[in-house]
Description:
Radius of gyration: 28 Å
Strand order of the largest sheet: 1-2-3
Order of helices and strands: HEHEEHEEHHH
Oligomer: single chain
Strand content: 15-25%
Distance between the termini: 68 Å
Amino acid sequence: LAALTLASATRKRFTVPDLRCDAQWKSRSEIAERVRIRSCYLQPILGGNGKQLGIIAIYKKYAGTPSGNERRLVNRISTLLALVVEQYRQSEELQLASLIFGNSSEAMTVTDANGLILAVNPAFTKVTGYEFSEVKGLKTSVLSSDLHDTSFYQNMWQSLSETGAWQGEIWNKKKT
């Protein structure tokens, strides 16, 4: 447990070559003998951002340090596990975003960098009367009501390109 805590705190590999000679394991030597472990090797699992996602703990029946091949193998396994954990978390986040998008009462569109519509939510269809198949690949200007001048849209797009956000109100038209 002490080795695990140390590896976790330092986010670095940690090896205990012989548990019987390690001060941290003195109080646990009986447990180690009972389960027949003599050494341990701990490898943190670090995400792409350097955040620790977990630890691989390997316990061996004999004393010693892992070979170069063993360390490389554990390092590769750690990297693969980090990818799997991060992909799983991203998948969960995407599912949540999809759930929010699909169930929001606010009309929403997803566009590419050129303003072409890639997706709409059900509220968009309800509010505008346009089905996704009718607006897919079109510019959002298909909804333009002509109630805003050119400078309004220039300011909006400038804010979006500079800050990634814009807040305001646009008067658009329905399909009818």
